Amino acid sequence: MFRSLLKSDHPIVEVNHDHDGHHGSKPTYKFRIVSRELLNDLYVLGMTRAKSQNMKFPDIPLEFVLDFMRGYHDGDGSFFIDMRKRLVSSVIGTKEFLDVWCEKLKLLGMEFDSAPIRHGNKTCGMYIKVFTGIKAIEFAKLIYPSSDVSKMVRKYEIAKKFM
């Protein structure tokens, strides 16, 4: 569907790799944009290279923040079940981005302790914010207020088991 919206016949390539030394990691997919016009349009709209390393939280009305968070989490976050059978949510970004992420969640009524935002990868300045157990479930309920919102189904299905 993505390719058809762009009227492209370029392939979407599956990349199998051993991500961070974890055997059995799921594959990722690559789609290259070779149109200078489309690429320039994306830059005008605010796209940057290595967004997780330099992105700032956008200035958007609070009523749209959860939609933004759901979309961002779909790309740079995860839901998984830990060894204690608890739901875990993590999201990566710059420290500044994640500080605002947490501020927005508090404004939306999610209470949590000030657990530190940890380094995800010290060599490239990425950080990670993790919610575990009840707080991960609360976050999931916020970003998935109903089953019909647009979402990455694979991540939603993991969270849905706990909601």
What is the name of the CATH class of the largest domain?
Answer: Alpha Beta
Q: Any idea how many domains? A: 2
Instruction: Write down the overall geometry.
Output: globular
Class derived from helix and strand content: alpha+beta
Q: Strands of the largest sheet, in order across it?
A: 3-4-6-5
- What is the chains' assembly state? single chain
Which structural traits does this protein have?
single chain; 163 residues; alpha+beta; Endonuclease I-creI; 2 domains; four-stranded antiparallel β-sheet; two-stranded antiparallel ribbon; 6 strands; globular
Overall description:
By secondary structure, this protein is α+β, with helices and mostly antiparallel strands. The protein has 2 domains: 1-47, no CATH class; 50-163, Homing endonucleases (Endonuclease I-creI), CATH 3.10.28.10. Helix content is 37%, strand content 18%. The chain is built from 7 helices and 6 strands, in the order H-E-E-H-H-H-E-E-H-E-E-H-H. The strands form 2 sheets. The protein has a 4-stranded antiparallel β-sheet. A hairpin with a 4-residue loop joins strand 5 (118-121) and strand 6 (126-132). The chain is globular. Residues 19-23 have low confidence and may be disordered.
Summarize this, please?
The chain is α+β, with helices and mostly antiparallel strands. It has helices at 2-5, 36-44, 51-54, 65-76, 95-107, 134-143, 153-160, and strands at 13-15, 28-30, 77-81, 87-93, 118-121, 126-132.
Secondary-structure map with pairings?
Elements: H1 2-5, E1 13-15, E2 28-30, H2 36-44, H3 51-54, H4 65-76, E3 77-81, E4 87-93, H5 95-107, E5 118-121, E6 126-132, H6 134-143, H7 153-160
